[in-house]
Amino acid sequence: MNDQVLVTGINGFIAKQVAVRLLKSGYSVRGTVRHKETAATVRESIARAGGDVSRLTCVVTDLAQSFGWDAAVDSCRFVQHIASPVPLESPAHRETLVPIARDGTLRVIAAANGAGVERIVLTSSLDAMVYRNKRLKNFTVREYDWTDPEMPVLSAYTVSKVRAERAAWDFVETLKKKNILTVINPGMVMGPAIDRNISASLVMLKLIVKRAYPALPSTAYPIIDVRDLSELHVHAMTNPKVGGRRLLAASDTLSMREIAEIMRVELGPHGRRIPRLNLPSCVVKLMARFDPTIRTLLADLDLHPIADSAYVTALTGIVFRPARESVVAAGKSLIEQGLLIAD
């Protein structure tokens, strides 16, 4: 097999691991990067993870620009659209990221359709499903649930994920090619990192271990292991049952306090400083007035979402790892990558 797959944003945490799995499965991979210098680093990381980089090429293009995408998808059988704007700091305006996320997604789909691509796998987020009014404290998230993007407490990232995914579905509907698209909606992505370019979720773990915050907010998240997530991405390209479907990628739900306790037990001397106290929600709300990072927690306070992903296992045969296993793997990989040093 020498089928070509375009992977957008190949230097990202999820995209690199999808690329490794594609290469191990016999595909050729063309990855997009925003800067030419990034390509060498990506190749090194993927090679260390066991990917055959003789079948890996990189092209320079950007979601914010209209040119370059026709050439990027040329001769590709499948597209993995994983790139998405993730700012280091949350923008003050909730719609700031929408133009890049939405318009970039539409550019990729239009180019892929023009090139005759068989399947586009779009990485969205559980964020595009979970936030809506009148939720109970414990509630279940299902395939056809949608976040209300007008909720005032939503972050710019969440709004961008909703708007981009909605636009993608609307576009393939106008093409009358709904089955060309499969969307994967992952929960909080844990599991091992293959290099030091880690996800926002692993950054959060690092901050907890380093006691950047003295107490933990009352929040909880459905978790997916990046190894299972990458397997699902590759499987979704060729499974006829998942065309036109949203695949909710999440295992069980853990609270921040449970995540902290797991790492305290499993990380040995690295976990000694992990906080034990809960941060009262009233204090979180007060802090959020002055700290944009804390403000992103408001939509999750005192809620416990459960992801109904059993249908994904029924469609694909992929059984997601328990969340505890994913948290432990993530914490240990932070140590292996030299991102955590015991006091």
Give an overview of the whole structure:
This protein has 343 residues and is α/β, with parallel strands linked by helices. The chain has one domain (4-336): Rossmann fold, CATH 3.40.50.720. It has 13 helices and 14 strands. The protein has helices at 13-24, 38-48, 69-73, 98-114, 127-130, 156-174, 200-209, 226-236, 256-266, 281-288, 292-295, 310-316, 323-336; strands spanning 4-7, 28-33, 56-60, 78-81, 119-123, 138-141, 181-186, 188-190, 216-217, 220-225, 246-249, 253-255, 278-279, 304-307. Helix 1 (13-24) packs across helix 2 (38-48), helix 1 packs across helix 8 (226-236) and helix 9 (256-266) crosses helix 13. The termini are far apart. The model has no long low-confidence stretch (mean pLDDT 94).
Tally the beta strands.
Answer: 14
Annotated CATH architecture:
3-Layer(aba) Sandwich
Counting helices, strands and paired strands, the structural category is: alpha/beta
Please, what is the average pLDDT? Answer: 94
SSE topology string: EHEHEHEHEHEHEEHEEHEEHEHHEHH
CATH class: Alpha Beta
The global form is globular
CATH topology: Rossmann fold
Give the CATH H-level superfamily. Answer: NAD(P)-binding Rossmann-like Domain
Radius of gyration: 19 Å
Q: Report helical residue fraction.
A: 25-40%
Number of spatially distinct domains: 1
Strand order of the largest sheet: 3-2-1-4-5-7-11
Low-confidence stretches: none
Sketch the major β-sheet: 7 strands, parallel
Strand-residue fraction? 15-25%
